[in-house]
Write a structure and sequence with these properties.
This protein is mostly helical and 98 residues long. It has one domain: Helix Hairpins. It is 73% helix and 0% strand. The chain starts with a helix and ends in a 13-residue tail after the last helix. The mean pLDDT is 85. One of its GO terms (biological process) is ATP synthesis coupled electron transport.
Length: 98
Amino acid sequence: MSPMYFSLNSAFMLGLMGLALNRYHLLSALLCLESMLLTLFITIAIWTLTLNSTSSSITPMILLTFSACEASAGLAILVATSRSHGSDNLQNLNLLQC
């Protein structure tokens, strides 16, 4: 395994571990999700460069668009929960309550 693939794999795993283990603030969970999507974007961009095919060259841009939409929706949820509950602590949120 080359050092580049190892570093991309470890960056994705660190984001996944941060999402799984650090569940106190909503903002830290959103940052972990964004780092995972950015790592996937870099990996798919490198993969399309190594394939030299024009048919899959739009795939990284589609993923980048979806990650921007995910970030804007996550920040909207963060603002809504901090206005309604006073903080972004995930322990204070009850998803079963309207």
